[in-house]
């Protein structure tokens, strides 16, 4: 029996969309789109689920600066917010998630380092943070990095924060947790003396109801952390598309609005280097 033209066209369309949504990750297939909003093309993005102000999951709702950046980039790549599959991403798992194709992009306070560039490619930076310290509000003894000798300091396993503190303060009693919220909880419970990670992350926790008024940031930042979007090593095409999206976000004012929305309640102002200029992909 001869098929009607419109029936055949519909069948072809379903087949094409199915092929696109079923693609693997980590390449231009995650970003190329001919139809914009109409494609409904899925994209898997790794981010944190436990960092208020950056990447936080409450029920089915995602919020934070990293989430806003990721959502903007996904839109530019042809995916609507409903098309995003959010994948919880711990610091120590990021390279593995990208290498094994479990995510297309990682937007998770992912500092760009030469060591990490051996395993993944980065688009960005999209934000410049600095490593700092969080202590209890009634602690007047710890005022900066130099006061940590012999103290119990908590940080996230696999983060650049842990590596830097080991180098700068050999006498610190470093304890590593899987998630930043565990460190802050231990601090309030007096199990550790301080927490270290990026100032933007610490500010997010300091503004949250369980910790507000009980903890404070101290000392100047003692590092520069340039956040990038991680993707499959060598995928220059996808990197270029993501970089263009980040550049547009900064230029059209959306970046500044996201900063004000997510960091304003904590009274945190981004430091030098913001907004950054995303580097060219290589």
Explain this structure to me?
The protein is an alpha/beta fold. It has 2 domains: 22-129 and 227-266, D-Maltodextrin-Binding Protein, domain 2 (3-Layer(aba) Sandwich), CATH 3.40.190; 131-218, 3-Layer(aba) Sandwich (D-Maltodextrin-Binding Protein, domain 2), CATH 3.40.190. It is 32% helix and 23% strand. The chain has 9 helices and 13 strands. The chain has helices at residues 5-21, 65-76, 94-99, 114-117, 160-168, 180-188, 199-206, 236-251, 254-263, and strands at residues 43-47, 50-51, 55-58, 61-63, 84-88, 105-106, 120-129, 131-136, 152-156, 173-177, 194-198, 215-218, 225-232. The longest helix is centred in the first third of the chain and has 17 residues, at 5-21. The protein is globular, with a radius of gyration of 21 Å. 41% of the residues are buried.
**What gross morphology would you assign?**
globular
Level-2 CATH architecture of the largest domain: 3-Layer(aba) Sandwich
The total beta strand count reads 13
Percent of residues in helical segments? 25-40%
Order of helices and strands: HEEEEHEHEHEEEHEHEHEEHH
The strand line-up of the biggest sheet is 10-9-11-8-12
Distance between the termini: 54 Å
Spans of at least 5 consecutive residues with low confidence: 1-38
Question: What structural class do helix, strand and pairing data support?
Answer: alpha/beta
Overall pLDDT score: 86
The CATH H-level homologous superfamily of the largest domain: Periplasmic binding protein-like II
CATH class of the largest domain: Alpha Beta
What is the percentage of strand-forming residues?
15-25%
Gyration radius (Cα, Å) is 21 Å
Biggest sheet record: 5 strands, mixed
């Amino acid at each position: 029996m001869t098929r009607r033209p419109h029936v055949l066209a519909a069948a072809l369309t379903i087949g094409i969309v199915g092929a696109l949504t079923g693609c693997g990750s980590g390449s231009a297939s995650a970003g190329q789109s001919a139809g914009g909003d109409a494609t409904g093309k899925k994209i898997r993005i790794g981010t944190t689920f436990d960092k208020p102000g950056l990447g936080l999951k409450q029920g089915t709702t995602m919020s934070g600066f990293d989430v806003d950046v990721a959502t903007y980039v996904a839109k530019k790549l042809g995916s609507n917010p409903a098309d995003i599959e959010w994948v919880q991403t711990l610091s120590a798992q990021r390279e593995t998630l990208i290498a094994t194709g479990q995510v297309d992009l990682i937007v998770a306070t992912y500092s760009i380092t030469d060591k990490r560039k051996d395993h993944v490619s980065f688009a960005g930076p999209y934000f410049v943070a600095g490593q700092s310290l969080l202590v209890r509000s009634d602690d007047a003894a710890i005022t900066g990095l130099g006061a940590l000798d012999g103290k119990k300091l908590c940080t996230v396993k696999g983060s650049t924060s842990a590596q830097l503190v080991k180098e700068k303060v050999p006498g610190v009693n470093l304890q590593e947790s899987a998630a930043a919220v565990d460190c802050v909880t231990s601090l309030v419970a007096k199990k550790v003396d301080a927490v270290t990670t990026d100032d933007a992350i610490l500010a997010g926790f300091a503004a949250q109801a369980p910790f507000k008024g009980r903890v404070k940031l101290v000392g100047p930042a003692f590092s520069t952390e340039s956040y990038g979007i991680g993707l499959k090593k060598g995928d220059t095409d996808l990197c270029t598309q993501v970089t263009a999206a980040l550049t547009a976000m900064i230029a059209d004012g959306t970046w500044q609005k996201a900063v004000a929305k997510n960091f304003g309640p904590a009274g945190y102002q981004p430091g030098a280097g913001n907004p950054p200029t995303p580097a060219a992909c290589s």
